[in-house]
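Example S7 (structure tokens).
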């Protein structure tokens, strides 16, 4: 069984997922990093060269494979939009890392490595959150507020809630 970590961009999925896996002595994988490794391209390069639809196809394939392996799996922020991924998450622990638009905007800054946030970062984050939060809420077995919280405190709270 996998522990899937989901949430908006800049919610802490990668850092929390990695630390959670260490604390539970489980393998960790970040879906976005795995896609970049397998494709030999960064996600912004994939969006520019092949488009978002190509990326979403890869995301679906890689996510489904990694969930089957188990361990702690940090999903891309938009993975929950795919019905196959949502169906695959049923029966797994799904940790939703909540973050406010204000905190996410501060964390992201003007990071051009996030193609869906280019332009008005705050407005784009708000749009993504409005679209995705009902799905995160539906899938989550554990919900954690990450605003103004240290990674170690977040991991401790997740661990407590999973046991």
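Recovered sequence:
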């Amino acid at each position: 069984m996998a522990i899937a970590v989901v949430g908006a961009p800049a919610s802490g999925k990668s850092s929390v997922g990695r630390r959670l896996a260490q604390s539970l002595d489980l393998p960790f994988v970040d879906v976005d990093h795995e896609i970049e490794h397998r494709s030999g391209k960064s996600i912004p390069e994939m969006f520019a060269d092949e488009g978002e639809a190509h990326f979403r196809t890869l995301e679906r394939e890689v996510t489904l494979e990694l969930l089957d392996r188990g361990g702690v799996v940090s999903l891309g922020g938009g993975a929950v939009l795919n019905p196959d991924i949502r169906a695959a998450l049923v029966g797994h622990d799904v940790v939703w890392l909540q973050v406010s638009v204000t905190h996410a905007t501060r964390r992201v800054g003007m990071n051009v490595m996030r193609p869906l946030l280019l332009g008005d970062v705050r407005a784009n984050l708000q749009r993504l959150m409005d679209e995705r939060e009902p799905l995160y809420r539906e899938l989550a077995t554990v919900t954690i507020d990450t605003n103004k919280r240290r990674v170690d405190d977040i991991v401790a709270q997740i661990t407590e809630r999973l046991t």
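Notes on this example. The mean pLDDT is 88.
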